[in-house]
Amino acid sequence: MGLFDFLKAKKNTASIAKDRLRIIIAQERSTLGGRDYLPLLRQELLEVIRKYVNIDAEAVKVDVVKEGEHDILDISVALPDERASAA
Amino acid sequence: MAEIIVVTSGKGGVGKTTTSASIACGLARRGKKVAVIDFDVGLRNLDLIMGCERRVVYDFVNVIQGEAALKQSLIKDKRFDTLFVLAASQTRDKDALTKEGVEKVLKDLGDEEFDYIVCDSPAGIEKGAFLAMYFADQAVVVVNPEVSSVRDSDRILGLLASKTRRAENGERVKEHLLLTRYSPSRVETGEMLSVKDVEEVLGLKTVGVIPESGDVLNASNKGEPVIMDMESNAGQAYDDAVARLMGEERPMRFTLPEKKGFFNKLFGG
Predict the structure, then answer these.
(1) What is the pLDDT of residues B192-249, one digit of tens each?
(2) Do residues B9 and B148 touch, judged by C-beta distance below 8 A?
(3) Which of B27, B216, B100, B96 is nearest to B35 (CA)?
(4) What three-state secondary structure class fits B147?
(5) Cβ of A7 under 8 Å from any chain B Cβ?
(6) CB distance A64 to A72 below 8 Å
(7) Contact state of B201 with A12 under an 8 Å Cβ cutoff
(8) What ipTM was reported for this prediction?
(9) B194 in contact with A at a CB cutoff of 8 Å?
(10) H or E segment and range at residue A66
(11) How far apart are alpha carbons B182 and B188 in whole angstroms?
């Protein structure tokens, strides 16, 4: 700090930046459906389903879709062709 | 298996290529066998920063499309015997890269006993950036202490946690922050986000802080990655970052303003 720095008084803009970032990033993380849990959820679903039915890794699809105001967790599982699995 | 490290950021111009080049050199200087790949098809630049632009004969796309063998496309670095550059294609469009093609190149490099593969990502979140990160074991997210860069980094962190092979297998890509163009004096006066600010906002630890330095431009002018200049603060900071990536503990340097003389203190400077 120089002796004459008070003449050019500056605002603490870094703290403004930090506050703005905190808000926008929290908002974007929530609208993008969260960062982490979808792939893990998908993997765990796959493991549970495989206890009962032998399915491909690609057969489980997990997505968050927006419908109006609501977020819907959309899970679809394609079961294998019965004749193919019996053969 | 080779350890795959993607250098990414979302935002352009924050220092991805500078960082890729320096990390690759730093790893090679520690005796590792390293390949550094430019994923920015159409806007090749890693070759310039590495100083091998006149020796590019075949590129990444040639290898993927089977027009050249991997071995003849790898450009051997003049400084280190164990460092190789794979240039991006300058003429093709981004669709020339395919997931299967990239996977095969990475696997073949692993078979050639490379220890590390550094993937220099293009800016943005399009196909090139996606493919650069898809197979990564670790990610170095390059960020400037500035609002748009920090926000874009958060988007990239979201993609690393969902759109990568590791994420699809229920694992995590090991993520690191690397701050570039850091100005300790501006942080002290409250004009720039601090290391701690960025870590708190992104919820991630820093693997390196590279101070703003004229040496970075001098280095790219010469085609000599700045880590080769161990006189410079930026070069030393990159060397610390590489050591930390390899698991060494090193105290953070160059994050506090340099001590000023009496005259400067009195009049500001």
Answers:
(1) 999 999 999 999 999 999 999 999 999 999 999 999 999 999 999 999 999 999 999 9
(2) no
(3) B27
(4) helix
(5) no
(6) yes
(7) no
(8) 0.85
(9) yes
(10) strand A60-67
(11) 11
Query: N- to C-terminal Cα distance for chain B?
Result: 51
pLDDT digits (tens, 9 = 90+) for B13-35: 999 999 999 999 999 999 999 99
Best-predicted range by mean pLDDT (A33-47, B88-102, B133-147): B133-147
Read off the amino acid at residue A83.
R
**How far apart, in whole angstroms, are the C-alpha atoms of residue B225 and residue B19?**
9
Instruction: Indicate the range of A59-63, A82-86, B138-142 predicted with least confidence.
Output: A82-86
- Predicted structure pTM score: 0.81
Query: What per-residue string of b and e applies to B36-58 under the rule 16 or more CB within 10 Å gives b?
Result: bbbbbbeebbbbbbbbbbeebeb
Q: At what angle do helices A13-31 and B147-160 cross, to 10 degrees?
A: 30
Q: Is A65 on the interface with B (CB under 8 A)?
A: no
